[in-house]
Amino acid sequence: MHKFILFEADHIVVMALTLIVPLILAFVARRSSPVADAAFRHGFAALLIGTWIAWYALFVDRSWLAWGNALPLNLCDWATIALLLTLIWPDQKTFELAYFWAFAGTIQGLVTPDVNYSFPEPQFVVFFMSHATIIAAALYLTLGTRMRQVPASLPRVIAWTMVYAVTASAVDWMLGTNYGFFRAKPSHATFFDLMSAWPYYIPETVLLGVLAALVLYLPFFFSDRITKARMS
């Protein structure tokens, strides 16, 4: 089996499809009846559930399942839950969590994945299917279902992200795990390698998370300003 190499052809293809597929689906949905939007949303939900089940099946089959990966305490897990709720029952508050966690957190896993071998190794397929679907679904909800962020989204997302951080770090302290990377940096190459040593990278991560939330809100901020200027 060919060892995974960062930004090799299969990696680039996955990242490209993660953007192209939701753009095509959004184009179709905006020119079709609400039935198409519901079908696309439910399709994304089915993919998320299917890949989550496949992930557990793979880890059980290979005897990889342990306290450090069995609990849904990675930020991507929380993004998946928020996305599933939004895809099935569109709601502003779950959408804003899914949007920010997908584009500020999950995208890092897509760019610097924790996989050993390239396509078609099952670990590669399951990992990228789950992470790519999270990002693609969040993008589709924004462009296809036309959900959006509001000014109140920022404090709510920051507050819920702090809830996640406290929860994950508490479990890490009790079980000796490393959910959220609060006890150590990832063992594979990631953006954490550019940051300070433990524990100093933790406040740096919090600051970067707040800045990421502000940057991710900018498209909606400018859209509102343009709309307001046109109406005045």
Features:
single chain; 232 residues; mainly alpha; 0% strand
What does this structure look like?
- With 232 residues, the protein is mostly helical.
- The chain has one domain.
- It is 70% helix and 0% strand.
- The protein contains eight helices and no strands.
- Helix 4 packs across helix 5.
- It is globular.
- The mean pLDDT is 95.
Q: Quick gist of this model?
A:
This protein is mostly helical and 232 residues long. Helix content is 70%, strand content 0%.
| Class per helix and strand makeup | mainly alpha
The share of residues in helices is: over 70%
Shape: globular
Question: What do the pLDDT scores average to?
Answer: 95
Q: Report the sheet-strand fraction.
A: under 5%
Count of individual beta strands: 0
Radius of gyration, in Å, reads: 18 Å
**Biggest sheet descriptor:** none
Cα distance spanning the termini: 62 Å
* Total individual domains: 1
Tell me the quaternary state. single chain
Number of helices: 8
Which spans of ≥5 residues are poorly predicted at pLDDT below 50? none
Order of helices and strands: HHHHHHHH
